Fold this sequence. Notes:
single chain; alpha/beta; Spore Coat Polysaccharide Biosynthesis Protein SpsA, Chain A; globular; membrane; Nucleotide-diphossugar_trans; transmembrane; Glyco_trans_2-like; Glycosyltransferase family 2 protein
Amino acid sequence: MAIPTLNEAVHIEACLRSLIGSDDFCKEVRVAIVDGGSSDDTCKIVSSLRREFANIHLIDNPDRIQSAAINKAVRDLGRPESRYLIRCDAHALYPNGYIRRVIQAFAQHPDAGSIVGVLDAGGRNCFQRASAWLIDTPLGSGGSAHRGGTRSGWVKHGHHAGFRLDWFRRLGGYDPTFTHNEDAEYDHRLITSGGRIWLDGDLRVDYVMRPTPKALWLQYWLYGKGRARTTRKHEVRLQWRQATPALSLVAQLAALLMAPVWPASLALPALYLFALATASGVAMAKMRSLCGLWAGVAAFIIHNAWALGFIWGKPFGKARVR
């Protein structure tokens, strides 16, 4: 099992205890904490937990990024007889028996090169809670099956839970130059090489949303740039739900530029703002809290930060929309 970290002192102990603190099976699993040079107490906390859990290994990741961290865990701790790699995230909390459930999913689906699960978003402050509500709706995620969904089945992409190591090694692991979207890029290579990905709707992870609008903006800006790199590298076709944020942003900016000569063009941004306001209203009702007001703000950030990052990545010379 591998967990990439970089300044995760707030989350890492709770994450590790949720994984190995209540399941004796997991105490026999080698757990690699691959740290990218944390400047907080992440490594200190991990070192202290090693006195309680002898199967924890702290590995230095000089390349800092997650894709390189997972590859390094396989190189440093992987054994020739090892069959599976479980990837976990420090920002997440895991249900009892999670590791055992991933391995069972591989046994049930021997054709699967990867097992993916579902993210159930959450948070503590108002902004996190509203963002979490939004991301599990089509307005927030475009209907991604691994965002709050319940169905199981064969998919082309999802939240990585486990890899069959023969496939992972055959494909060369993650592309270590990717800071974001390394999971989707890997999934593309797996699918085009004849591999399959099983989404287990019962394999659920509690994911903590970013705590501030600025942090959420940066996250989705980087997601957009990562997707742009994937489209450039593989000349892949974009799904409409992926292309919609960028097309919407371009259309809204064009409408604002045209407004001085054609005021009716303002109907488009007005309609978008109405949709955001409606999202906030529905969120307040569903959450039974004024915190839901942040849902429209979160939607604006997710759509437009991703779109700007994607456009900045300049994929349009090669990418196609389907």
